[in-house]
Amino acid sequence: MKKIFALSIGLAVALFVWNGVITQASIQDSFMREAAQSGMAEVMLGNLALQKSQNEQVKSFAQQMVADHTTANGELATLAQSKSVALPTEPSAKQKSAVDKLNGMSGMDFDKAFMKQMVKDHEAAVKLFSRESERGTDADTKAFAAKTLPTLQNHLQMARTLNDSMKNMKSEKSNDNSSSDGMNMNSNNSNSNRNSNSNRNTNSNSNSNVNEK
To answer: What is the pLDDT at residue 19?
Structure first.
């Protein structure tokens, strides 16, 4: 009886440990899959910006996104293969929807929407990689996250700066319109004054002629 009880306890402990191992492996796999989709989406969005944007700063940022995320995607693929983890081959449906939405825009509207999306995406990516670098249980995956995190943080800082720049450009445009309106008002007032002075001079000359007669 004691042997059966001891065997039962042993099996229970083994199952508990095994479930823990499976859970940790599942979390690791989840990180890899999410990181892969995020990286692929950034490359797609970056290439789209290179095609559609007319802003040199936005295009330069997009080029860096393509280069850095392509490198990270390759490193992640190698890591996943070594861990026998199957990665997705395309971004999520939500990410593809964001690409499609941006593809329908152009000009300043595209640049503003693109940079807003970059801020949103990189905030999520920094959170994902920070969590893995701090709490990851697999040494190799944790090291990959820690290595990639500074690059993502740099991307986020650049994205926020450019996003703010897009907002300022809108304000400057509005100010230009206000200045233009002010100039038009001044011009109209000047013309009105000249016309008024001209009318007064004409009336004065008319009265003078009448008096002389």
So the answer is: 41
- List average pLDDT for each run of 10 residues in the chain, which is 213 residues long: 59 45 64 97 98 96 98 97 95 96 96 97 98 94 97 98 86 48 51 53 48 43
| 210/193 Cα distance (integer angstroms) | 26
What are the two backbone dihedrals, phi and then psi, of residue 189, each rounded to the nearest 5 degrees? Answer: -65, -40
Rounded Cα distance, 37 and 122, in Å? 13
| Nearest to 83, CA basis, from 39, 18, 15, 136 | 136
User: Does pTM surpass 0.85?
Assistant: no
Of 156, 36, 45, the closest CA to residue 85 belongs to: 36
Given a contact cutoff of 8 angstroms between Cβ atoms, the answer to whether 94 and 41 are in contact is: no
Residues 6+ apart with CB under 8 A from 79: 32, 140, 141, 144
Q: How far apart are CA 53 and CA 50, in angstroms?
A: 6
Backbone angles phi, psi at 87, to 5 degrees: -90, 155
**Gap between the Cα atoms of 89 and 119, Å rounded:** 24
Radius of gyration of the chain (CA): 33
